[in-house]
Amino acid sequence: MDTRKLKKFIKLHWIKLTLLIIGGALLILVIYMVILGIRSFITLESFYKKMTLAGIPIQLLFSIVTAFIFATIYTFMWIHMIYGGGLAKLGQKKIKSTQVNVKWKDVVGMESVKKEVAEVVNLIKDRAHLRKIGGKIIKGVLMVGPPGCGKTYLAKAIATETGLPFLAAVGSEFIGMFVGQGAARMKNLFKEARTLAELQGGCIIFIDEIDSIARPRVGITGLGGGISYNATINQLLTELDGLRQEENNIVVIGATNVREDELDPALMRAGRFDRKIYVGKPGLEDRRKLFEYYLKKTSYEASVDCSILARKTVGFSPADIANMVREASLIAVRNQREKITYKDLSEAYDRVVFGLKSGITLSEREKVWTAYHEAGHAIIAYLTHPTDDVIKASIIPRKGYLGYVGHTPSEEIHAPHKEWFLANIKTNLGSFVAEKLKFGTTTAGVESDFTNALQFAHNMVWRWGMGESGLLGNFYGLSRYTPWGGGMSLNISEKTKEKLDEDVQKIMNKCLKEVEEILTRERELLEYFAQELLKKEELEYDEIIEIFKKYGKEKPKDILPT
Ligand code: ZN
């Protein structure tokens, strides 16, 4: 270690070193005093010896109390007056690049993002080259996207790939009780990064949940919170600008779950966070790869098909998928099996989506009702839904549901067709019709089904011009917000409202009629499906397909126009 490095080392660890020296000196002093005391005590006459001994307890107590009071006052002053938010240094995690160790090959299920990140890595690694050709040097990268999609993971991968030390902080750490505390913490973070950069040739600062400090700045309201908040973000901006003028290799990566237009625009200005990477939810192929990746770390049965799992988990984040595989392995262990089966994964899926099985036990009669109710949903979904597969039917109660039928499209649908909405309305009404056909009456179990169906029909008419009467427009587009308790008001006539509502009911009734026709025609299938469900309580994708095959029903192919 040459002198320059030694200096840096001292700069980085001066608090610890100072404490060590003071502590050592105090220890030596105490030992010396004790020896001195004992030596003079021995020379005393017996009367004085006794007197001295009698005084010790009270003296000891007095010293401890005094020391305690002084230590408290001193610490408090030291932190908040002399050092200005000195606690900032504590609680800040420093993870060295060797400890981060997220390898490039471990970044799975985010192919498109990976390319962008690879580019960032190259730009960081190749600064000298970049400068020669006059390219722009990256200082700030902002990762935007929903939680659980691997933003932290990617930041760590960048650190590993570039071989730079990694300093991680969370936005909420900068929100302190005292004015200036957040700003002081920010300053310390960058100070430490600069020192590390000089020692190791660069540094990556990762600030997660950056939105908690980077919302648009507020006007000074006279409250300490507002001022402190502004000071923190101002400090961040100053530090970012400072980085541009220096010869260092520090890159700041911010991550946020909120949309970028909800962040302070000053943050996005040139030379600050001017590179944005969107880390979204994985698509079908990405999900398949994620399942493969996580399952490979366990042992699972060869029959488990990752593409079916991927189809089943539309909307899952990588974290959800990891969680599902973890749950499945726990379930397998509990059942004393060495390999994860599809059934375990299916149960894990239910747990992730619907929560644990609830403690309710249904009476025999209610079980029968539920079985017919769910059979109604399943048959209509299977026979009429243009994009969705029926992946599961269950009459085991969970989190507020007595049973459920799972149906999902194989791919995310971003702008659904009219046919898609109609199929969803019909699927929701399937339960009501099945109950009526079987028992001649219906239950309150259809409440949430009706809510869903009505919402679909309402939006079709009110927003997307899918009603019969020919009224066109997104009528919510005319809504106005009236402040001071006025709330939202719709700027349309009563007559139009009535007509729109009529259209909604027309859609509902047309769907109902169609469902009645189908289930009356398929009465035998309804009976068989409900009885199978009663027997097994849960039917998986394969078992459901088998039932329909038995009755000569093929799942209609995707009928949507392309
Ligand atoms: Zn239902």
Secondary-structure element order, N to C: HHEHHHEHEHEHHEEHHHHHEEHHEEHHEH
Structural class by secondary-structure content: alpha/beta
Number of domains: 4
Mean pLDDT: 84
Shape: elongated
Strand order of the largest sheet: 1-3-4-5-2-6
- Name the CATH superfamily assignment of the largest domain: Peptidase M41
Describe, in plain words, how this protein is organized in 3D:
This protein is α/β, with parallel strands linked by helices. It has four domains: 81 residues; 185 residues, 3-Layer(aba) Sandwich (Rossmann fold); 71 residues, Helicase, Ruva Protein, domain 3; 187 residues, Methane Monooxygenase Hydroxylase, Chain G, domain 1. The chain is built from 19 helices and eleven strands. Strand 9 and strand 10 form a beta hairpin. Helix 7 runs parallel beside helix 9, helix 12 packs across helix 13 and helix 15 packs antiparallel against helix 16. The longest helix is centred in the N-terminal third of the chain and has 40 residues. About 3% of the residues have low confidence. Zinc ion (ZN) binds next to helix 14. Zinc ion binds next to helix 14.
Short account of what is shown:
By secondary structure, this protein is α/β, with parallel strands linked by helices. Helices cover 57% and strands 9% of the residues. It is elongated and about 110 Å long.
